[in-house]
Design a protein that fits this description.
The chain has about 250 residues and is of the alpha+beta class. Helix content is about 45%, strand content about 25%. The strands form three sheets. It has a four-stranded antiparallel β-sheet with strand order 3-1-2-9. The protein has a four-stranded antiparallel β-sheet with strand order 5-6-4-7, sandwiched between helices. A two-stranded parallel sheet has the order 8-10. The two termini are about 25 Å apart.
Amino acid sequence: MSGHSKWATIRRKKGAIDAKRGAIFTRIAKEISVAAKEGGGDQEGNPRLRLAVTKAKAANMPKDNIERAIKKGTGGLEGMVYEECLYECYALGGVAIMVDVLTDKKSRTTPEIKSILTKLGGSLANAGAVSRLFERKGQITLKADQISEEALFDLALGAGAEDIQVNDGMYTVITAPAEYEAVQSALSTKGLNMEESEIKYIPMTTVEVNDKETAEKVMKLIDNLEANDDVQGVSSNFELGDGVELD
């Protein structure tokens, strides 16, 4: 897990921890629409929709945007029909990458993902080859200056969190998917501001890259995948070697 935290820290320093707010809202809106289409627009009876709305609120997404996305999913408004895809990939250095996608046209998205991989030495993997290296977890990051470590432990673990990590002025709260909503709600109720909050693939072990050129290509590959409009999230087991200094 330390490798993931280190990777997140590097990305914050490089000013690329997330896409622009508009892109974030677009991605969350897709997620809400798909959840509403599959399970209906009632949050009480649709856990997936409830989680998507919780994520939207954590990102300060306007209420009107949330309601519009729900209506699109339930057929109340015209909109595109999205398909969920999961791409299992390899990058240079044996790094494994999971790419979550929601697309209205898979025949467009798949070649785009392949092109991004090919240009930076990556490739698609067979189904199951990469996913077995990850586990699905809720992950919430927040700045450490908002609450003491002891108070956060009491609050988050009391709400069902599995673990809390401290790294470079940031807390990372890890939960099982089933407990994510309760933990997210507990932190929000306390008035804490989250930097990132989502259910994603967490690597069970990391791959350390000690070659500077390889590390830079892996980082660029992940950034380029995240920049694709159809990509909802990217997870990797990449860890930068201690002796590697980036420009």
